[in-house]
Design goal:
Blueprint lengths: L17 H6 L9 H15 L9 H17 L11 H6 L19 H5 L8 H10 L3 H14 L4 H12 L3 H14 L1 H10 L12 H5 L48 H15 L4 E10 L2 E11 H6 L4 H9 L13 E10 L3 E3 L3 E2 L9 E8 L8 E11 L9 E11 L4 E11 L7 E9 L8 E9 L27 E11 L4 E4 L5
Antiparallel strand pairs: 1-2, 2-3, 3-4, 3-5, 6-7, 7-8, 8-9, 10-11, 11-12, 12-13
Helix pairs in contact: 2-3, 6-7, 7-8, 8-9, 9-10
């Protein structure tokens, strides 16, 4: 019925008889049962119930949907008339809809991760027992405990490895960030090769983390900065780290291959080796009508093995087993240096295998073309290092590294070469050598000479190494009487007649 009583405030239509519809000017077709049901449902959505009766469940469900739509689309309005106390009791005010709270996940820390497992006296040992049993969640917690009690970088790195195997991307990033903060040089090369991290190396945060950069997810808006008129020519393949002393000649060319040249060369190298190659560093120099390029590249030993054997056999051969002290070689490569001739046709000289004993190229420190000997003609320098730990090293067993340097004429032979590799256990097992060099005009003839310093290590606890794979002397306590490390220097004088550097004992 129509009513203005307390049970029906605001002249709201109640579920009345069909003759009342006629009295209000409604068409009789509006009094059909389905229309009355619809109208009652609509009214339920507005006042909560028809004349105070509890609606059936089906009607209540429809009313809830209609009310939600109304709340989303209709603007808020003040009531047309004031309600009496009685009316307020009969029709309680509907509460404003409450939006669900947005839960912002809190980033894990080493402390929070360590707290997930009971503390142990030897957390690293406990972690390894979980790791070998593939209980990666527990291993992560114990590695975090080890990282909090020991400043060595290997513990957070091991945490990252366990997290990667367990599919925990955030924990992998946490471990790597911490490890890089402790020793970026050791961690960056290791992380790019370790088989445990293979599934994470394609993540967009992986390389920025290894470079020590703050990771910004895709889509982050950055302030725009004007592009320089002359962009730097530093190759994308590497970041030069030069430490050649005060007499480094004037700047030369560090221009790398462009994308088209790289694609052409990779195609030619694929035909040469039968496997996909990865260019790690390059430098080009115009030489008359021809463009010359020196290129450092590598390909995986697994791919090479697959040319002659099955996948199963290659995995068995290269995967290794820590129990019998054989290391995992799955991510190791074969490394090469080649000179390419970009003319009408692309041709290459015979590729030369380099970096003997290296698992893979850690970093190409420098590839540059300039007049190093000041004879009026440009030369090229190739400088690369490697650094590797076996899986056993995570428990203090084995690490190895080295460096390869060559200075050569663009079209001719090498003028200077320095190559070495060392192996370190908890104690240096036998005499090991590391070398470095600098330019210095020793005989004052206007041509830079080379001073090569050699560090001989034997029976000593493994030292820390710098980015030249040379021991950090400032961290060592050298005793003249019982020194475990000795240093010696050799001078190589530049010979203009032979256009190369020669030891002083040769009479130059």
């Amino acid at each position: 019925m129509w009513s203005t009583g307390a049970a029906n405030p605001g002249n709201i239509l109640s579920c009345g008889a069909k003759e009342r519809f006629r009295g209000c000017g409604y068409d009789t077709r509006m009094t059909t049962p389905w229309f009355r049901a619809w109208l009652c449902t609509l009214l339920l959505s507005l006042v909560g119930a028809c004349d105070g009766d509890t609606p059936p469940k089906a009607a209540a469900g429809v009313a809830e949907v209609e009310a939600t739509k109304a709340a989303e689309t209709a603007p808020m309005q003040a009531p047309a008339t004031a309600k009496s106390p009685a009316a307020s009791q009969a029709s309680p005010v509907r509460p404003e809809p409450v939006m669900p709270a947005v839960v912002v996940p809190t980033a894990d820390t080493l402390e929070s991760l360590a707290a997930e497992e009971p503390a142990t006296e030897e957390p690293s040992k406990t972690a390894w027992s979980h790791y070998k049993a593939k209980r990666y969640d527990k291993a992560q917690s114990n590695f975090a405990q080890a990282a909090l009690s020991d400043p060595a970088w290997k513990h957070p790195f091991n945490l990252a490895c366990a997290a990667a195997l367990g599919g925990e991307e955030a924990h992998t990033r946490l471990g790597l960030v911490e490890a890089v903060s402790r020793d970026s040089g050791a961690v960056s090369g290791k992380a790019r090769r370790d088989a445990d991290l293979a599934g994470m190396r394609t993540k967009d945060w992986f390389e920025p983390v290894l470079r020590g950069e703050a990771y910004e997810p895709p889509g982050t808006v950055k302030p725009t900065t004007p592009r320089p008129l002359h962009p730097p020519t530093v190759p994308a393949e590497y970041e030069p780290e030069v430490a050649d002393g005060p007499l480094t000649p004037s700047p030369g060319s560090v221009s790398p291959l462009n994308n088209k040249q790289r694609s052409r060369l990779n195609t030619l190298l694929l035909a040469q080796h039968g496997v996909k190659t990865i260019i790690r560093g390059s430098v080009i120099s115009d030489h008359g009508e021809e463009t010359l390029a020196w290129v450092v590249y590598e390909y995986t030993r697994f791919d090479a093995c697959m040319l002659k054997s099955t996948k199963k056999a290659c995995r068995k051969k290269l995967r290794g087993d820590p129990d019998d002290e054989s290391s995992n070689e799955m991510s190791c490569t074969k490394q090469f240096l080649v000179r390419a001739h970009f003319g009408t046709e692309l041709t290459i000289d015979e590729p030369e295998s380099i970096m003997k004993g290296a698992c893979s190229i850690g970093k190409v420190r420098r590839m540059e073309s300039k007049d190093f000997d000041r004879d009026g003609e440009p030369e090229v320098i190739v400088d690369a290092t490697w650094y590797r730990e076996t899986e056993a090293f995570r428990e203090g067993a084995l690490t190895e590294g080295g460096r390869f340097v060559r200075i050569a004429q663009l079209q001719g032979p090498a003028q200077f070469e320095m190559a070495f590799g060392w192996v370190m256990l908890e104690l240096t097992p036998e005499e090991q050598e590391a070398k470095r060099f600098r330019f210095e005009d020793v005989d004052h003839d206007g041509h830079p000479d080379l001073v090569v310093q050699t560090a001989v290590m034997e029976g000593m606890e493994g030292p820390d190494f710098d980015n030249e794979a040379f021991p950090k002397l400032d961290d060592l306590e050298l005793d003249d009487d019982e020194s475990e490390l000795t240093l010696r220097s050799e001078t190589l004088l530049y010979s203009p007649s032979e256009d190369r550097w020669l030891p002083t004992k040769s009479g130059h």
